[in-house]
What does this fold into?
Amino acid sequence: MSLAEKITMLRKQKGWSQEELSNQLDVSRQSVSKWESSASIPELDKLIRMSQIFGVSTDYLLLDQADGLPQKADSAPSRILNQQEAQHCLSLRQASARPMSLAVSALVISPVPLLFLGGLSEYQTETISADMAGGLGVVLLLVIAAIAVWSLIRCGMSQNDLEELQKGPFSLHPLAAAWVQSQKQAFQKTHRAYISTCTLLCILSLVPLMIAAAFQAGDFIYILCTCLMLVIISVAVNGFVWSGTIQGAFQMLLQEESYAPEERAAERRVAPVAACYWSVITALYLGLSFYSMRWDRTWIVWPCAGVLYAAVIAIAKQIIKKF
It folds into this structure.
């Protein structure tokens, strides 16, 4: 029996209307209606108050088990996280969200110095030579990429507790689950705003190039517009990663969507495919770059590989399911 069904049943046993229950809890009748239709869940203080006025435990209200019976003894043992542990997990993800988003943004804009210096060397040959522009541009690209990768590694190492948690089965204490769900609902407005705004930025990033094409601008203007496009995309990626990291923390704790047990099992099975894929992409990128020495162009391998990666993993999952 779900929480919504239990609230409805207990209210009717008391002979109360939704309006009367809302008066007992100091909330609106619409709130009670949403609880009973599963459109939302009560906050922790309201759950505690309901347990008091209905004369039941909070575990009875929150445990989604038929007839309130305990789970079978032969079910797989799992670690049960309390609210304090859930808060710790969320704080770890929130602390690493900004450094991770900045690091990924840095990887996106790392080719910008190379592109700009390369264009400048062709536009003003007296100021900087092509060899100097290429050498300095590659050095700046590698420095930015190295700092970004270092930051990502540090963020990963700081979340060892979360990695260990995801390796084995776990569940949330009902009160912790209710708290995480309420925090997730509070974050939804911010998450939707970030996703919509960053998607708009990705679309608008092409505008400078379109304007340059409309006015038949010179090559150097095209290069500047390409640099501006990458900067805009990096801002959008920053928002995507920051918001997605925090949203992913909620989904991980609640074991929803890609963090559901069956999805995590599938991810573990395709992990070797992902490792092989990125190894091949890295080898391809380095091979093309050193062979052509056109580092200002071969960076396009990475966004193309990122788009193709989703298709490769989807195909790998379908193949694995058949065997």
User: Anything to note?
Assistant: Residues 5 and 280 are 53 Å apart (CA to CA). The longest strand covers residues 79-81.
